[in-house]
Amino acid sequence: MPTIADPQPISTFDPSRAALLHETLNDQAMAWDPERADDWRRTADPHEEGVHWDGYIFDAWGTEIVPAGAKSVALS
Predict the structure, then answer these.
(1) What is the model's pTM?
(2) Distance (Å, whole) CA 41 – CA 58
(3) What total of structural domains would you count in the chain?
């Protein structure tokens, strides 16, 4: 997970707070919008490789991006 500094397990993610999520399929950090917390709570599906949500697989979260070579995109 080269794009998030000090990555935390996705199992500890609080969707009601702003964060960066590591998306495994594209190996990128994505900005999380806390306004989508209710949808996360309803539809997030935990799996061995991470949490499946809205077509993504997230395996970690953090609050800072590693500057060198980091890719970041916002959720649409």
Answers:
(1) 0.80
(2) 14
(3) 1
Question: Kindly report the CA angle at 45 between 16 and 38, in degrees rounded to 5?
Answer: 30
Residue 42 DSSP code? H
Range of the domain at 13: 4-74
| pLDDT < 70 stretches in the chain | 1-3, 66-76
Q: At which residue do the structure tokens 């999380």 appear?
A: 32
Q: What is the SS3 assignment for 2-20?
A: CCEECCEEHHHCCCCCCEE
CB 20 within 8 Å of CB 2: no
Backbone phi, psi, residue 14, to 5° = -105, 105
